Amino acid sequence: MVIKKKRFITLALSVCVGALAMVGLTACGGKSGSNQHYAQDFYAMSAISSFNFLQNSEGSQSTAVAQVQRPTGMQEGDVQNIAGYMGMFQDMLASDTTDYYTNGTVDANDQYAGVYNFKMTLTVPSLDGGQQSFSMYYNEVYTNTEEEIDDNELELEIDTTLRGIIISGEDVFNVVGQREYEKEGREEEISIEFRAYINNTDYILIEHEMEDGEVEYQYTIFQNGQRSVTEVEFENERNEKKLELEFVTSSQTSQSKLKYEIVQAPSNENVFNVRVKSATDGVATGETFTITVTSEGYLFNYSNGSSEVVAF
């Protein structure tokens, strides 16, 4: 069976997730300027995360040329999602740069001059090995700033609101964001969220929290009456390179949970061992299989002997 991948999260997201996770451990630094730069990194990562979801929200339908017996609990959408995250994993392993966007004021001759103050231009890898670019125009205003000295320690609170658009060719999507930054002595906490809309009911929400060096990301997709929540954790320690994904999909009548653990084989960088734990309405199952990167796409080899390819 060969299927076309419906990508909710662009391949380029992996570059930013890996880079931003490292930036998050050293950013902020107790200064409002570095806090602003940290927020720009997050907004850039969020714009890239949203870009492919917005452009491919209708998606291509899977094309089956033969029947395949998937493990219990794995649906076609699950296969498509994990194939998309495979691209994320590969880019995380290969990425060594954070140079994926520029940010500045809107030029006086720009069509959006006078409407938005800032323009972010993002250039990221595309699936065909080339590059793709798009822009985000936005305004970010301070809604609250408080600063005082208590017991010789600085207490600082900064809140902002972002509103803007993502634009690529003739496609224009509305985006909003919120940022909260708090500092008390040496303790810092930052909370940011970013929403990109297809319409009033279908959108992607990206949330990020950082407190004392601990970084968390959560992606929530609202589409066609369903709510899908994804948490991502990447590890690259010693000889083991691992990506853990946990997401929950809920509708009015059902709920499913999936946790993927993808580990690159130490003997072959194109082979990945996958462990899946799933639960649908309280019924739990487990499965292990391998994914091999081939010239045609991702080859899923299931333990029951069945296989399928997800094309790039």
Concise structural overview:
By secondary structure, this protein is an alpha+beta fold.
Describe it for me?
The protein starts with a strand and ends with a strand. With 312 residues, the protein is an alpha+beta fold. It has three helices and 16 strands. The chain is 18% helix and 52% strand. It has one domain. Strand 14 and strand 15 form a beta hairpin. The protein has a 16-stranded mixed beta sheet with strand order 1-16-15-14-13-12-11-10-9-8-7-6-5-4-3-2, with helices on one face. The longest helix is centred in the first third of the chain and has 24 residues, at 32-55. Helix 1 runs antiparallel to helix 2 and helix 1 (13-26) crosses helix 3.
Key traits:
alpha+beta, disordered N terminus, 3 helices, 16 strands, 312 residues
Tally of structural domains: 1
Q: What class do helices, strands and sheet pairing give?
A: alpha+beta
Please give the radius of gyration in angstroms.
21 Å
Largest sheet composition = 16 strands, mixed
Number of helices: 3
Strand content: over 45%
Mean pLDDT: 78
Q: Give me the side-by-side strand order of the main sheet.
A: 1-16-15-14-13-12-11-10-9-8-7-6-5-4-3-2
Shape: globular
Fraction of residues in H or I helices:
10-25%
Poorly predicted ranges: 1-32, 58-65
